[in-house]
Backbone:
């Protein structure tokens, strides 16, 4: 029920309707819940309504953080290992 | 699928799992409640439980709107559907949920009631426009995610003068339910559920923002991390919760920054506030009556309120006694501990709502995890 998918806006059809595209499927959605929707925006679609815009910058940043999540810990562990070795 | 596929990447999942394994203290148990059924399904579908150490356990919460709707409200909807001249419209998930004596909307339809499944409130409005001589009732259920489309439909019906449209409103609120789970005493003979932190709702929070969870985090000392529904989101949020627990912090943190902001969708909130108001109390399956946990239609829109337009008779609504759905929703029992699970109760012949809904914990166990010894 709370599931929603990000889809790209391909046309603005009226004051509060737009068409979104997802994997080749085009679907009309209501944009009554959002201000300033423009073509090219990614919006979260839920029960036929665009619920929120998706921030492309934040999506990239999150992926970056995920990629780094393991790395920093690995580095710290290596450093700790080296310190321990140096101490013995 | 842009912005979905990236968040299912196997290599990144391994990295995050590695970080969790390094940072989880082996001397500690981490009981993390994922509030939403969407998270439960991500955990099962992608085998997230197998990627985290054994001392990190996911406790499944009540965040399945179909599951928490009490049987009495469903019985009322079935009664509405059977009234003369009524077309009852609702989201697909509701059709097969069993009410008292296993009656359901789909069975009512088989008996001649005009029950129609809709994808959107826009479809319900269209049915009302196309059938000016019939009464079209939209059976509205759902958390804050699904509430704004109901508010929009009522405003649109008013603007169009669509007087044959009304809403049977059953929208419920997430933050009071989280507070209730932490505070509520368990049933007699029940071991209280232990929760060290919450994976907070994804799309509910896109509407209400992350600020409303702050009182729960502050007052109950439980960290909350707003988490996206993709497997990498769940893993990253798990890592964030483990860090908070290790540090002794209990803050609201936001992992799902690509969609959730502190203030949420103000326009949607304003539309909901214009049309709906708090109910002083509302019954949830599994949780009982929870104060200030649901919404009803404001008096100004009484003409669109199905509860005011139609009389529903008081009835003896009864849950199926042997169904453990209520205990599953409280997180105190796993679906596999219910004696009906996988025997008389399967997705084909569901006895309880948790097996019907695509977000129900029983459906997740059946679909992805029924052969697991530990889940």
Residues:
């Amino acid at each position: 029920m709370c599931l929603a998918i990000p889809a790209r806006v391909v046309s603005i059809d009226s004051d509060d309707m737009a068409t979104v595209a997802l994997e080749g499927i085009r679907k009309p959605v209501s944009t009554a819940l959002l201000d300033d929707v423009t073509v090219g925006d990614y919006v979260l679609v839920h029960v036929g309504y665009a619920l929120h815009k998706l921030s492309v910058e934040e999506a990239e940043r999150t992926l970056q953080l995920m990629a780094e999540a393991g790395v920093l810990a690995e580095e710290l562990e290596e450093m700790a290992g080296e310190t321990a070795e140096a101490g013995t | 699928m842009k912005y979905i596929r990236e968040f299912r990447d196997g290599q990144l999942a391994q990295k995050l799992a590695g970080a969790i394994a390094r940072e989880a203290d082996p001397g500690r148990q981490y009981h993390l409640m994922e509030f939403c059924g969407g998270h439960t399904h991500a955990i099962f579908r992608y085998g997230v439980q197998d990627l985290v150490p054994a001392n990190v356990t996911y406790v499944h919460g009540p965040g399945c709107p179909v599951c928490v709707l009490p049987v009495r409200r469903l019985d009322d909807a079935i009664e509405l559907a059977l009234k003369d001249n009524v077309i009852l419209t609702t989201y697909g998930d509701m059709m097969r949920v069993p009410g008292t004596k296993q009656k359901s909307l789909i069975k009512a339809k088989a008996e001649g009631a005009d029950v129609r499944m809709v994808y959107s409130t826009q479809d319900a409005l269209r049915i009302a426009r196309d059938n000016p001589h019939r009464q079209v009732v939209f059976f509205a259920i759902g958390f804050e995610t699904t509430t704004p489309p109901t508010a929009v439909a009522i405003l649109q019906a008013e603007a169009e003068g669509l007087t044959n449209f009304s809403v049977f409103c059953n929208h419920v609120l997430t933050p009071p339910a989280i507070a209730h789970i932490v505070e509520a005493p368990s049933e007699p003979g029940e071991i209280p559920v232990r929760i060290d932190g919450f994976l907070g709702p994804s799309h509910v929070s896109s509407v209400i923002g992350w600020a409303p969870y702050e009182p729960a985090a502050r007052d109950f000392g439980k960290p909350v991390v707003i988490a996206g529904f993709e497997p990498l989101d769940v893993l990253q949020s798990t890592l964030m919760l483990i860090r908070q627990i290790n540090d002794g912090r209990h803050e609201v943190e936001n992992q799902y920054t690509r969609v959730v902001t502190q203030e949420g969708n103000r326009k949607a909130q304003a539309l909901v506030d214009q049309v709906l108001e708090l109910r002083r109390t509302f019954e949830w399956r599994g949780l009982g009556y929870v104060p200030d946990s649901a919404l009803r239609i404001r008096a100004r829109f009484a003409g669109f309120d199905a509860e005011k337009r139609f009389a529903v008779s008081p009835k003896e609504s009864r849950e199926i006694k042997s169904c453990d759905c209520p205990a599953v929703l409280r997180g105190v029992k796993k679906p596999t501990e219910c004696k009906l699970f996988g025997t008389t109760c399967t997705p084909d012949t569901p006895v309880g709502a948790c097996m019907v809904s695509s977000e129900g914990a029983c459906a997740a166990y059946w679909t992805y995890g029924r052969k697991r010894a530990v889940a």
Observations:
- The mean pLDDT of chain B is 93.
- Chain B has 17 helices and eleven strands.
